[in-house]
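Hi, here's the filled form for the chain we discussed.

Project: internal
Contact: R.S.
Residues: 107
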Amino acid sequence: IKDTSATKAWDYEVTRKGSVTLYVEAKGMVAPWGKSAAITVTRNEVENARRNPDSCVLIVATSCTLSQGNDGQPVAKPGKILVEYPWTPDAGALEARVFTHRPRRLR
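And the returned structure, exactly as it came back:
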């Protein structure tokens, strides 16, 4: 398991010897999972999942609680883990919330 969250559009790469590499996107939320629950995914995360439709995994930790560890750092504890594999986001599962607009005069 390799942490790629600082350099890639996905959080982890998981490879077993002689096997396919999986691209894992991890999300967390305080709310419990339900029909109105939603997570935010970035454009790059969606594009990667579409480019690698059989190799992407979405893991969502729900009902998370936060506390402070002995070292003073925050510690998240999930209540339930949901796994979507393969993760292949389609247009019906995505809702645009933010757009970037560049006025013609500034292009």
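Let me know if anything looks off before we file it.
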